Amino acid sequence: MRRVQISIASLMVVVAGLSIILALGRSRVLPARTAASSRPDLNADRALGFRALRKGRLAEARSRLLSAARSSPSRYEDYFGLGLVAYAAGDYNEAHARYSQAIGLAEAMPGHRGIVADLHRRRAQASLALSRQPGSSAILHCRAALDDLAKGRPAGVNLDPQTLFLIESTSAEAEQRLGDFMAWEGDRKAAAAHHANAKRHAQAALAIRPQPEASRTTPLMNEIVGNK
Length: 228
Hints:
The protein is mainly alpha-helical. The protein has one domain (8-225): Alpha Horseshoe (Serine Threonine Protein Phosphatase 5, Tetratricopeptide repeat). 75% of the residues lie in helices and 0% in strands. It has helices spanning 12-16, 18-29, 33-36, 40-54, 58-71, 76-89, 92-107, 113-131, 138-151, 161-184, 188-208, 213-225. Helix 4 packs antiparallel against helix 5 and helix 6 (76-89) packs antiparallel against helix 7 (92-107). It is globular, with a radius of gyration of 18 Å.
């Protein structure tokens, strides 16, 4: 079975968007200063947790965010942050579980359609990472990733180029891997369909190519499309 080679640097696309997503989340859902002043311990743990995450101090970030989550279990931000920590640490099972918790909480909050979509995209990346691990249910993980990616692009929501690139490039890899597995199982028709979808998504990703992140993943897109 032909394997699609994935550069470690391609995973940095998610990290590059962290500051933007955190800023979006703070502007939409964190309490105003007057409300926050009554719960300085919660906001301190959350703020310090995300600060530690941005600086790569994963153990500290996890400890702070767990403390915030225990004190305020209805807030999606803490589980979102824990998902980011787990993904950065390579614990994709925990990342998937934390994103699922965040999705459940964010879905119950009005006006958070964009946040929920982003969480689905991130859970898709965790599923795709799980599909690469030896002994995993790769086909199920790839299909789960594609399902989340579809939910991560809701109708009527305008997405920035970097987000669109992430969706298309991740979809391309998931479809390519599914096609490879179908070919290995001898289902040529299904393999051809998935490979055709992969090529379509890869072409869309190459047409977007936000810089500088896209240049890091162009080899994968080129391989799927067939460029030299």
